[in-house]
């Protein structure tokens, strides 16, 4: 039997497709819940070495993409990896060294837009909402010129599936001028469609370990 080099599982593992497709908008939240669980389980099953390879490839693709879009003093919002998300902290370090200001998203108020707090390699992170490590409240609040949006799932129209809090959609709806938003996730997290709803805002670009997949930027 052949083995998938990334997951170490049988290449012919049983079909993991969602058990249903939503018939109408009222089914979409339930469908998304099933898909989030499936995609997160697949991501959790990755070997550490596969995760590292993916993170390094993403850092490379993003560095190439950002070199023409960010200059010293610009604000770049990244994320602190949780729940098996690709680790882009080496990229944050490199861009910081180049004089780019790095910010991280923070849930300061539940169900409100995210705020962005400055991060430097010297920042002592504290635990925020949902136990996510965040820069402390005394760090400067910044508005990103370019923002990464971590993806649980994505589609070729540029829509994203996150953890289901609606935080990025709420944030993008509130930010003016809106930053260039780059979705970051696994190639294997591609869906035929996320069944976009009126509140869903498409991303400008989507990048996976295989390179740029969507470019509306
Ligand atoms: N690394 C990282 N940081 C990030 C995000 C992210 O996706 N990744 N976010 C991107 O938006 C924001 C936090 N997003 C959140 C999204 C949902 C819930 C939430 O509602 N949690 C529920 C449990 C939901 C579940 O387990 O399915 C809860 O706490 O009860 C909290 C934070 C900001 N920081
Ligand atoms: N602009 C908005 N204003 C108010 N509520 C919103 C907005 N955008 C999304 N929501 C609400 O947030 C909830 C979750 O939305 P969705 O399924 O798109 O989450 P998600 O994009 O996967 O999560 P996240 O952005 O936190 O990673 C929905 O109930 C939706 O109504």
UniProtKB/TrEMBL annotation:
One of its GO terms (molecular function) is metal ion binding. Signal peptide: none annotated. The keyword Kinase does not apply. Substrate binds at residue 85. Keywords: ATP-binding, Ligase, Magnesium, Metal-binding, Nucleotide-binding. GO terms for biological process: folic acid-containing compound biosynthetic process; tetrahydrofolate interconversion. Its cofactor is Mg(2+). InterPro entries: FTHF_cligase (IPR002698), FTHF_cligase-like_sf (IPR024185), NagB/RpiA_transferase-like (IPR037171). Coiled coil: none annotated. It catalyses: (6S)-5-formyl-5,6,7,8-tetrahydrofolate + ATP = (6R)-5,10-methenyltetrahydrofolate + ADP + phosphate. Its EC number is 6.3.3.2. Pfam families: 5-FTHF_cyc-lig. Gene3D superfamilies: NagB/RpiA/CoA transferase-like. PANTHER family: 5-FORMYLTETRAHYDROFOLATE CYCLO-LIGASE, ATPASE INHIBITOR/5-FORMYLTETRAHYDROFOLATE CYCLO-LIGASE. Belongs to the 5-formyltetrahydrofolate cyclo-ligase family. This is 5-formyltetrahydrofolate cyclo-ligase. It comes from Gemmobacter lutimaris.
